[in-house]
């Protein structure tokens, strides 16, 4: 816990988690959404270029995030990584 807020986690769709090509990001977005998980995009400046990051969550526990990560692997055929939110 940080302060009075519960710990939360997000799952980053891999391989890179950040995409320069919006079309590629949208394809990955659709694959994650297709397994019934909440997914969202966020813009990130990396080396002076805007990338699209794809995240699923937030999840209220590490266990819930790990389960979502497993669903992304088995259902969408993607690697993913659990990160604190």
Class per helix and strand makeup = alpha+beta
Order of helices and strands: EEHEEHE
Number of helices: 2
Using the alpha-carbon principal axes, give the shape: globular
The helicity comes to 25-40%
Largest sheet: 5 strands, antiparallel
| Parts with pLDDT < 50 across at least 5 consecutive residues | 1-5
Quaternary: single chain
The end-to-end span amounts to: 11 Å
Strand content: 35-45%
Name the average pLDDT.
85
The beta-strand count equals 5
Q: Return Rg in Å.
A: 13 Å
What is shown here, in short?
With 85 residues, this protein is α+β, with helices and mostly antiparallel strands.
Could you list some keywords that capture this structure?
alpha+beta, 5 strands, disordered N terminus, 85 residues, five-stranded antiparallel sheet
Question: Can you give a write-up of this model?
Answer:
The protein has helices at residues 22-33, 62-76, and strands at 9-13, 18-19, 39-46, 49-59, 80-84. The model is unreliable at 1-5 (pLDDT under 50). Strands 1, 2, 3, 4 and 5 form a five-stranded antiparallel β-sheet that branches. With 85 residues, it is α+β, with helices and mostly antiparallel strands. The termini are close together. The chain has two helices and five strands. A hairpin with a 2-residue loop joins strand 3 and strand 4 (49-59). It is globular, with a radius of gyration of 13 Å.
């Amino acid at each position: 816990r940080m302060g009075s807020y519960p710990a939360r986690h997000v799952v980053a769709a891999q391989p890179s988690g950040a995409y320069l090509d919006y079309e590629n990001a949208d394809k990955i977005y659709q694959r994650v959404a297709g397994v019934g998980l909440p997914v969202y995009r966020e813009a990130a400046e990396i080396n002076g270029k805007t990338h699209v990051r794809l995240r699923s969550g937030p999840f209220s526990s590490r266990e819930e995030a790990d389960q979502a990560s497993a669903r992304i692997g088995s259902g969408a055929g993607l690697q993913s990584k659990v990160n604190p939110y």
